[in-house]
Amino acid sequence: MPAARDIMTPGAECVGAEESVLDAARKLTRLGVGAVPICGTDDRLKGVLTDRDIVVKVLGQGKDPAQTKAGELAQGEAVTIGADDGAEEILATMSRHQVRRLPVIDGHRLVGMVALADVARALPDSKVGDLLEVLSTD
């Protein structure tokens, strides 16, 4: 089975924890992605910000995206996968944490992102089907 570094999308960019959600939304648009990792001033991963987070946690609650910091939306410890972790670990981590995207780290450095679509392209249909079933149940 392939490792995370073999199936990830390389070159993921962070949004700074102190950057506004508006700036994060512009970054999502520029990159053409639905999620971006949140990094602190120490270059450590703080979480992942999704387009849904912006809609539900900022706009839906009447907050100003220009005044809300991306770091305010980081919840708990960031769920990540190591660059050398295998596909089985990717599946297990996505299932356990009910996430569709995982930042890939090498040491403490962000090197890419693995999305459900990356997993679907790299693994047998039965494994992907099992993951989709887990992610689709509440």
Automatic annotation (TrEMBL):
Pfam families: CBS. Keywords: CBS domain. SMART domains: CBS. InterPro entries: CBS_dom, CBS_dom_sf, Diverse_CBS-Domain. Residues 8-65, 73-131 form the CBS domain. Signal peptide: none annotated. Transmembrane segments: none annotated. The keyword Lipoprotein does not apply. This is Signal transduction protein. It comes from Streptomyces chrestomyceticus JCM 4735.
